[in-house]
Amino acid sequence: MPAVTTRKDPYAEVLLNLPARPLDRPFHYCVPEELDQDAVPGVRVKVPFSGRTVEGIVLRRMNSAEVDSVKPLIDVLDKETLISPQLMSLAMWMAEYYLCTRAEALRCVLPTGVRWENDEIIELIRDAAKGPQWDQIRHSSPAMMRVLRILLKESPISRKKLERMMKSGSLASILRQLESEQWIVRTDKAHEGVKPKSQRFALLTNTGKEAASSGLLRRRAPRQSQVLELLVSHGGSLSETTIRTHLGITGDLFKRLEDKGYITRQDEEIQRDPYAGYNFEKSQDLCLNQEQDLALRQIEQRIQSGESHSFLLHGVTGSGKTEVYLQAIRFARSLDLQAIVLVPEIALTPQTVERFKSRFGEEVAVLHSRLSAGERYDQWRRIRSGEASVVVGARSALFAPFTRLGLIIIDEEHETSYKQSENPKYHARDTAWMRCRLENAVLVLGSATPSLETYYKAEQGQITKLTLPERVTGETLPKVTIVDMREELKAGNRNPFSRVLQERIRATLAEGRQSIIFLNRRGFSTFVLCRECGLVLRCPHCDVSLTYHAGSRQLVCHYCQYTQACPDLCPQCKSHHIRYFGIGTERVEEEAKKLFPDLRVLRMDMDTTGRKGDHERILAQFRSHKADMLVGTQMIAKGLDFENVTLVGVITADTALNFPDYVSAERTFQLMTQVAGRAGRGEYPGDVVIQTYAPDHYSIELSKNHDYNGFYTEEMQYRSQLRYPPLSKVVSVLIWGPNEKAVIATAEQMARLIESAIPSAEEFHLMGPVPALMSRIKKNYRWQMHLLGYGGIHPAEIFRDHLQEMYQMAKQAGTHVSLDVDPIGMA
User: Fold this and answer.
1) Alpha-carbon torsion (345, 346, 352, 353), positive or negative
2) What is the pLDDT of residues 210-219, one digit of tens each?
3) What does the alpha-carbon distance between residue 184 and residue 178 come to, in Å, rounded to a whole number?
4) Fewer Cβ close by (within 10 Å): the C or N end of the chain?
5) For residue 201, how many other CB atoms are within 10 A of its CB?
């Protein structure tokens, strides 16, 4: 008898893409023989689950299952593995550490364009609605009747749309009952993601060449003849789009030429390259100074060792950190290792991309949110195929599908944009640290103003600190002048520009130099007030005042995008005394033009950069000196390097300082130092004017001398007194919903649960619950609490065993709950 062979690992452990937290665990399925070669870890599969078909991801293959009755996989959706074992491990760590579901974490590591979504189409069986059972079901629950009424009007309908129309309540049990009683049919809805882009080409055959050369077609079929002659002149191959554009013909003509055997037609894949129109000139490695060389040698030694290690590269603005990055990448590439470079989204300009493209050419792939989905997908495929070995991008570029990763660099590591605001609420810095540990790679964190968390780790010896104390040009850091705006008011100057700043702008303009004016508020005025009755015009959906935009004469809520026309009369007392208070970028631009009629001004904020390409257009105009002044928000505070900019003005340094959060002083110091660093980066010395109503605050005083060490010492004294991070770990809890009483009750119930789970009052402290700083957004009331941990146990451990209970509490009360591990503030 022939030997009986058994397949190795005939079972698959599958994570389903379902939103319910109780289902956030692996399920076992058997793998049919015809799918055996394709159902590998990291691919998406279709599986049966609870009477429907859903998508899942294979986590691993197994030779046994933990349950007796195992259903088979239905299909494998991917031709190749989408998630490497290393990224799979990283996603599982993220789910564990950031208290999110595994499905949410896996969405981060899936390529852009692959839509991992589940939905279904629900269709009413019309015969059932006509039959006698209609009278019987009319006595069912109000929720079931609501579903049936919706289906009578709108069937078929997607489940997600039905859930939105129902607004509240669970559909699962209702749909199961309706399906079992044959009222509805439920079918899986496929979501097609982005696909490779192809272009159809016309290829000249030998018969076509003969017809073109003989000229027989010119008289009886002149259009066909033109196509053949154009193909001959271009080597026998052209895209049909090019031919149509050139000759103005229709697609029917190509079909006729193909039928006659003159051409063949085939589709060829083309890459969507977001930088196809740019010309990046090749650059060479620069000569390093002593401090740069020492830093690079230490990084290279760690890359060579093949062991995970972390560095802080602390260098003043203009100290040449980028050149150290570039040469570290060069070394990694010499060992056939790959590299990821993260920069803040707002700093990811063509100027930044050029630094890496000019050094490494086609090896560089770029990933950021301003690319189209198709462009991001094609960049991902270049990375996956090995065509690109260096990735430059924003936060999500951290998950580039490299398999030989040797180096991760995070520039401006202190930036708050590295923290994701929705689930999973990961921080790129900490997640990069874990990826480096999993893949034995080196992590370099660079900044002129490191986060206190990172600098504290360096001081404690947990990471290696490398220092670049001087600018590579040998130039001194820009001179900083602090202007007390209280004195300006006493002197009768109510203009946004102090007298000192006005003088410096005139001098800069006379010298043919450029200036950057920074203000961290967009719009014309920050609020509108009636001076008769004191009414401040507020958003009806959010606990925030409306911002006036002069260009559109609209009042705008920057949280929910509510807009209304600016009234001529007070809505409350009908007075004409409506006044505009506060200063926005729009007003600064207008005042600059009034003060300096010959000044050419560009404005860069969320209002002027709404369309794709707006960032690049504005910066290109400024670089080519088509403007003398650039007015903007945080997006101009970092990453920009203009040799002709010698003056930087900060309209008010108090915006971040007055924010009610323990990180406000740190944010202020970082922002002032970073924006000041935009001045004097060429051969001309820099000049910085910082306007403030709090000139004696240590964050302002110390930024004058670019004194990070002094600021760190001062700020750590404050943090030590209150035991705030980095001396503690924090988990923040936000509860929100449309019913204020329900939100408060849920918050108090959760607080009791957390307090009962705390093992020691000395190691943990619960702050709250209290109303959130923004106590109402989009018609939802918001309460929050924070659990601080001081010992070896991270406060996330307290929540891990009670997550299901907390989400159930919120669901029963008609509210929502969200947890944030290691938040970047507590406001």
Assistant:
1) positive
2) 888 887 788 7
3) 6
4) N
5) 19
Question: Residue 745 above 80 pLDDT?
Answer: yes
412 contact partners, CB below 8 Å, separation of at least 6: 343, 344, 347, 446, 447, 638, 639, 674
| DSSP 8-state assignment for residue 381 | H
Question: pLDDT-derived band of residue 15, with 50, 70 and 90 as boundaries?
Answer: very high
Pairing between β-strand 578-581 and β-strand 44-49 as defined by DSSP bridges: unpaired
Q: What 3-state DSSP class applies to 651?
A: coil
In whole angstroms, what is the distance from residue 417 CA to residue 609 CA? 18
Distance in angstroms (rounded) separating the CA atoms of residues 401 and 397: 9
Handedness of CA 663, 666, 670, 671 (dihedral sign): positive
Contact predicate 123/129, CB 8 Å: no
Calculate what percentage of the chain has a pLDDT beyond 90. Answer: 48
Residue of 519, 529, 507 lying closest to 585 (CA atoms): 519
Long-range contacts of 758-765 (CB under 8 A, 24+ apart): 758/787, 758/798, 759/793, 760/791, 762/790, 762/791, 763/789, 763/790, 763/791, 763/793, 764/788, 764/789, 764/790, 764/791, 764/795, 764/798, 765/723, 765/790
Could you tell me if residue 778 is left (phi over 0), alpha (psi between -120 and 50 degrees) or otherwise beta? left
Overall size of the chain counted in residues:
827
Contact (CB, 8 A) for 77 and 38: no
DSSP state of 155: -
Q: Which residues pair with 515 in a beta bridge?
A: 629, 647
If we measure between CA atoms, which residue out of 714, 727, 723, 745 comes closest to residue 813?
745
Identify each DSSP E strand in 306-371 by its residue range. 309-315, 338-342, 364-367
Q: CA-CA distance, 783 to 742, in Å (whole number)?
A: 11
Closest of 191, 179, 182, 189 to residue 51, by C-alpha: 179
pLDDT band at 2 (very low <50, low <70, confident <90, very high): very low
Reference 622, options 639, 635, 603; nearest CA is 603
* CA distances in angstroms from 206 to 19, 232, 234, listed in the order given: 59, 11, 15
pLDDT digits (tens, 9 = 90+) for 423-482: 999 999 999 999 999 999 999 999 999 999 999 999 999 999 999 999 887 777 889 999
Q: Are 545 and 527 in contact (CB under 8 A)?
A: yes
Pairing relationship of beta strands 309-315 and 442-447 according to DSSP bridges:
parallel
141-147 contacts, C-beta under 8 A, 24 or more apart? 141/174, 143/169, 143/174, 144/174, 144/177, 144/178, 147/171, 147/174, 147/175, 147/178
CB 476 within 8 A of CB 677: no
pLDDT digits (tens, 9 = 90+) for 488-510: 989 999 889 999 999 999 999 99
Is 181 a residue whose pLDDT tops 70?
Answer: yes
3-state secondary structure of 700: helix
Is the peptide bond between 424 and the residue preceding it cis, with omega within 30 degrees of 0? yes
Q: Which two tokens stand for residue 265?
A: 């037609």
The pLDDT of residue 751 is 96
Cα-Cα-Cα-Cα dihedral sign, residues 448, 449, 451, 455 = positive
CB-count exposure of residue 607 (10 Å: 0-12, 13-18, 19+) = middle
Rounded to whole angstroms, how far apart are CA atoms 291 and 274?
A: 36
Cα–Cα separations (whole angstroms), residue 232 to 211, 252, 263, 266: 11, 20, 11, 17
